[in-house]
């Protein structure tokens, strides 16, 4: 319970049923390029209000040996539609799954969430692969 006496229930990670991210071989390892995606129709459910949250998700990454496949990324992002999750957690989940799928040299993920209750939220997370 919180101060407003609401029982806030996020969807447990194990129950999210997110579509898996697929990858393909990057044929130019060692040649660093930046890849940018902008997903303009992200939706999830606010665990506080049960109303939908809308956002634009931006991903910029430098591939290592694998690139993420676009159709799987679309299906992955769309699979959040019925997930109850806070803005801050969305971006951390996406970052963890993205890094696990394609092991990039670096990735920055930002969620630009639509205004809710006169407050606009932008959440960013960054990963940098440790140099060997």
CATH secondary-structure class: Alpha Beta
In the predicted model, the low-confidence regions spanning at least 5 consecutive residues are none
Strand adjacency order, main sheet = 2-3-5-6
Distance between the termini: 45 Å
Gyration radius, rounded: 16 Å
State the domain count.
1
CATH architecture: 2-Layer Sandwich
Element order, helices and strands?
A: EEEEHHEE
Q: Helicity range of the residues? A: 10-25%
Task: Tell me, briefly, the overall form.
Answer: elongated
Helix/sheet category: alpha+beta
Task: List the defining traits of the structure above.
132 residues, 2 helices, GTP Cyclohydrolase I, domain 2
Describe this structure as you would to a colleague.
Helix content is 19%, strand content 37%. The protein is an alpha+beta fold. The protein has one domain: GTP Cyclohydrolase I, domain 2 (2-Layer Sandwich), CATH 3.30.1130. The chain has a four-stranded antiparallel sheet, with helices on one face. It has a two-stranded antiparallel sheet with strand order 1-4.
